[in-house]
Every structure is written in structure tokens, then in C-alpha cells.
């Protein structure tokens, strides 16, 4: 699968993208149980670009994103390449990986309450990665923490308070401030606003959008909510059963979906904050594959979406499906795209 940035450097050599993910595969092994959660995902991302990752629950979004910085439990076996500025993070030494986390790439998790330490002040928590990764003193770190808090709309005079003293929206803003503490080049935001009510969700998203535009950070944002992603991200990857079903510019993907799964999602296209906006593809029979079905699929051929696909033909059961070009800067993993009828 490609989805590669073909931009050429002035000398005529291929430019190295900030992030180049190649054939990423993650399998959870718990005793006898095997779950191939991510099955060959490839994409690139540059500074200042925003990539939204959409998909139903269990499609492998979080597993894919967290594996980029090797943040998964040891039961997860990861293969492929995650080239960050040309260096493979999957094989990097732990010391190097620790240096990359926070300072070059950081994560905003869903549910800030569980991600923040309840017994430490927010100033201490924001200062921690700064002091760990940069050669600056306490005073300068505290000054930066205060600036960061102000920039996310949490008054810095409250920096001596503990997480429970803040509202859910404020805590999520504090998480965003923390993720920016070491001025990273990449932020991975995993459902950053899921737990928040509609108004606060819109505010936090607006804030995140502003920070991205101002700072030129690259962002991978995961959400169930297609409307949030299309609003926030210039490119969109739709995941199904651990693979990218379709990837391309958000507006085009939504206006003219090429993959039947994206079309089904589009029919259920919601508005921001609508509780019904959780991806529930309209008019599709059946359910996504279960872990045993995924394991069978990974060993054989055929399209994972075929059992639910209203446009499937016999070949969809037997042919290997991969991402094929489906338009300018677009790819879709559908045989019908090759025929032209999926387009
Ligand atoms: N620690 C784990 N051990 C075993 N299987 C896991 C583990 N974490 C996730 N899985 C399985 O991996 C698959 C992908 O899960 P993942 O959480 O990445 O999907 P997701 O698209 O992010 O879903 P959601 O939107 O619900 O968070 C699912 O089948 C899930 O049950």
C-alpha cells in the first residue's frame, strides 16, 4: 500500500517525509487468542499536515496510533516500519525512543483524568517533560508551563492546582498544553474530545485547530466522529478491519467517496456533537469481523468488507485487495476502483 508523498527535493532526490509508516502490522497475543488488530497500514505525514483517522469501534485506530510510539502493552507484536525523520522508531533503542516521546512526538489521550497524575499539581506535570528533555532550569520550565496554560485558555494563576480541581474540558486543555510542552513536531490525538459535552468539545477542537495552524505541527487525529475529522483534518484515512479502506483529501473523500464503506459512512454523515454521529454506517448488513474472522482473513485472500458490501462481486472473495490510486492524492482498497465502477 502506498499513499506516499512524491514531492521532490530541489536536488531531485525524493524528500523524506516527517513520518513514513510502512506496512504496519500489530497482533495482540493473549494466550491462545490472537487478534490481528492492524493489518498492513502505510501512510506519510509532513509537518503542518493533519490526518484524521476514522472507523468503527474495533477497526484498529488506537492500536495503529499508539504503536507509532511503541506505547502498546507487551502482548502487542508490532512489525513494519515507522520512519520518523528517516529513523525507524520500531527498532530504535529505548533511550532514543524516550527522547523522541514528548520532545519530537507526543500523544493526547482520551480521558484526561486517567492520564493526569491526581497527586501532582498541573504545573509539576507540565514541567516534568520539559525538565527531562531540555537543558533548562525550574524557573524557565515553570514560565513555559504558565505560558502554555494561558495559551490553552486555562489561567496560569491556577497552575498550583490539582487535576480534580478542574472541569473535564479544562483537564483536556491541560493535556493539550502538556503535549505541546516540548514543542513537538507531531501530535497524536486519540479521541481528544470524546468525553466532553458538545459546547466544550467544539471549544477544545477550535483551540487544537488554532495551535496546529499557528505552530505548523503535524497531527494525527483519531475519532469516531467523521464530522469532527472532516472539520479539523485536511486528509482522512478510513479504517476497516485493521486496514486503510480509503485515504485522501477529507472534503473529496466525503463529497465523492470511492470505497463502498466510505459511502456507507457518508450516508450516516452527522453534524458535530450529534450523539448519533458515532460511526454507524447506514444500510449495511452484519457487523465488522470478529477477532477470529480477522485472523482467518489475514491468512487468506479476499476483501474484509466483502460480506457486508452491497457492491461486491465474486472476485472480492478471492483476490488480494490493496490500496490503489483512485484519483489525485487518493487511494482506495476496492477492486471495483480498478474496474472504474467503484469510482
Ligand atoms: N490489549 C489488547 N489485547 C487484545 N486485543 C486488543 C487489545 N487492545 C485492543 N484489542 C483489540 O484490537 C482490535 C482493535 O482495537 P482498537 O482499540 O485499536 O480499535 P479502535 O478502532 O481504536 O476502537 P475504539 O474506537 O473502540 O477505541 C479490537 O478487536 C480490540 O478488541
Layout: helices, strands, pairs:
Layout: E1 19-30, E2 33-45, E3 50-54, H1 61-68, E4 76-84, E5 87-88, H2 94-100, E6 105-108, H3 112-115, H4 122-133, H5 138-151, H6 168-180, E7 186-190, H7 198-215, E8 218-222, H8 226-232, E9 235-240, E10 243-249, H9 250-255, H10 260-267, H11 291-299, H12 315-318, E11 324-327, E12 330-332, H13 335-339
Parallel strand pairs: 3-8, 3-9, 6-7, 7-8
Antiparallel strand pairs: 1-2, 1-4, 4-5, 9-10, 10-12, 11-12
Helix pairs in contact: 4-5, 4-6, 5-6, 6-7
Domain ABC transporter: 21-266
Subcellular location: Cell membrane
Protein name: Peptide/nickel transport system ATP-binding protein
Whole-number radius of gyration?
20 Å
- Give the total of domains: 2
Helix content: 25-40%
Shape: globular
Strand count, sense and barrel status of the largest sheet are: 8 strands, mixed
Amino acid at each position: 500500500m502506498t499513499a506516499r508523498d512524491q514531492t521532490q527535493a530541489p536536488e531531485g532526490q525524493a524528500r523524506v517525509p516527517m513520518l513514513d509508516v510502512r506496512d504496519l502490522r500489530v497482533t495482540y497475543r493473549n494466550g491462545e487468542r490472537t487478534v490481528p488488530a492492524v493489518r498492513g497500514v502505510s501512510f506519510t505525514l509532513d509537518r503542518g499536515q493533519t490526518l484524521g483517522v476514522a472507523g468503527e469501534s474495533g477497526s484498529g485506530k488506537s492500536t495503529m496510533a499508539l504503536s507509532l510510539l511503541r506505547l502498546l502493552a507487551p502482548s502487542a507484536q508490532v512489525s513494519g516500519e515507522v520512519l520518523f525523520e528517516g529513523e525507524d522508531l520500531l527498532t530504535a533503542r529505548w533511550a532514543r525512543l524516550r527522547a523522541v516521546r514528548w520532545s519530537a512526538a507526543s500523544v493526547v489521550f482520551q480521558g484526561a483524568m486517567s492520564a493526569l497524575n491526581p497527586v501532582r499539581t498541573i504545573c509539576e506535570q507540565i514541567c516534568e517533560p520539559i525538565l527531562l528533555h531540555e537543558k533548562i532550569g525550574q524557573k524557565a520550565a515553570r514560565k513555559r508551563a504558565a505560558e502554555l496554560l494561558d495559551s490553552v485558555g486555562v489561567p496560569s494563576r491556577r497552575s498550583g492546582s490539582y487535576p480534580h480541581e478542574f472541569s473535564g474540558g479544562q483537564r483536556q486543555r491541560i493535556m493539550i498544553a502538556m503535549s505541546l510542552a516540548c514543542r513537538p513536531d507531531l501530535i497524536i490525538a486519540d479521541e481528544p474530545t470524546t468525553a466532553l459535552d458538545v459546547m466544550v468539545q467544539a471549544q477544545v477542537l477550535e483551540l487544537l485547530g488554532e495551535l496546529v495552524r499557528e505552530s505548523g505541527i503535524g497531527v494525527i487525529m483519531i475519532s469516531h466522529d467523521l464530522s469532527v475529522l472532516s472539520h479539523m483534518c485536511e486528509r482522512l484515512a478510513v479504517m476497516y478491519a485493521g486496514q486503510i479502506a480509503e485515504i485522501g483529501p477529507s472534503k473529496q473523500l466525503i463529497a465523492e467517496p470511492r470505497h463502498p464503506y466510505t459511502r456507507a459512512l457518508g450516508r450516516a454523515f452527522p453534524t458535530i456533537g450529534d450523539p448519533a454521529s458515532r460511526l454507524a454506517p447506514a444500510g449495511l448488513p452484519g457487523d465488522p469481523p470478529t477477532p477470529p474472522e480477522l485472523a482467518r482473513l489475514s491468512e487468506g485472500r479476499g476483501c474484509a468488507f466483502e460480506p457486508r458490501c452491497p457492491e461486491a462481486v465474486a472476485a472480492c472473495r478471492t483476490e488480494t485487495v490493496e490500496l490503489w490510486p483512485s484519483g489525485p492524492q487518493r487511494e482506495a482498497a476496492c477492486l471495483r476502483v480498478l474496474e472504474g465502477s467503484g469510482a
